Amino acid sequence: MALKPTTVRFVPDEATSPDELAIAALHLYAYETAAGLVEPGMRVLDIGFGEGYGSSILADAGAEYVGIEVDLEIVEHARARYGARFEGYDGTTIDSPDESFDLVLAFQMIAYLDDPQPWLREVRRVLDTSGTSLITTPNRVYRLYEGQRPWNRYHAREYSAAELEGVVGATFANVEVYGIAADDPIDSVVRARADRARRLARLDPLGLRYRLPESLNAPMRRALRRAAQPEVDREAFGVEHVRHDRESADTGLDLLAVARG
């Protein structure tokens, strides 16, 4: 099925430009990291699964996979393309019993929530007492000027490592935040992309770009990502060039919160 254009969904297989390949590496790394925790038969919930490609990575690792998403159109698309269990939800309430999952994933979606606490409480409720939740989100430190509104039109809030630890730690007893770092060219491409967006946002103090219809915004942003960008060595953008560690918490491209208890 043909999906409506949007800048929210990202499909790594469709990446061609350096910008897109760098984003793909970060997104795929999150799923590969989760897959490394999976044991056969482990119950995995993927919240805000995007286009659905992560289901294949996790299923190959042996997960009993469930994905939930607010966009019912993407739910139908993912069911048809990947054949896994995908369901809709209201963005907060998870229609599953207490302690239903061993691993709960929420990649690149906490930034969309004005108040993440009701949602975080639901994540904790459906997570087994011995389970783990992995949450990724962009690191605002290099993306935004101090006090600047997120240039991603859908982001309600972006976080530093300390802020993410505080927000997730308000619900979970044990939280560790890591920085997701990468070698060049991934690192330089992502930072340059953020710098362009940050500077362009300053030229629009009235926020007119936020009012642009998504049917125009999505293809325009895709064209900008691909404009005048050279052909690249795709191997240089592989997930093997991405890592996470505590030392990168303040400087990483993305943040990874590991929450338990």
Write a structural description.
Helix 4 links the parallel strand 4 and strand 5. It is globular and about 50 Å long. The protein contains eight helices and eight strands. The protein starts with 17 loop residues before the first helix and ends with a strand. By secondary structure, the chain is an alpha/beta fold. It has an eight-stranded mixed β-sheet. It has a single domain, classed as Rossmann fold. Helix 1 packs parallel to helix 2 and helix 1 packs across helix 7.
Biggest beta sheet summary: 8 strands, mixed
What is the CA-atom radius of gyration, in angstroms?
18 Å
Distance between the termini: 40 Å
Structural class: alpha/beta
Keywords:
261 residues, alpha/beta, Rossmann fold, 8-stranded mixed beta sheet, 34% helix
How would you concisely characterize the structure shown here?
The protein has about 260 residues and is α/β, with parallel strands linked by helices.
What's the structural blueprint in terms of helices and strands?
Blueprint: H1 18-35, E1 43-47, H2 54-60, E2 64-69, H3 72-82, E3 85-88, E4 101-107, H4 117-126, E5 127-138, H5 140-143, H6 161-169, E6 174-182, H7 186-202, H8 214-226, E7 242-245, E8 254-260
Parallel strand pairs: 1-2, 1-4, 2-3, 4-5
Antiparallel strand pairs: 5-8, 6-7, 6-8
Helix pairs in contact: 1-2, 1-7
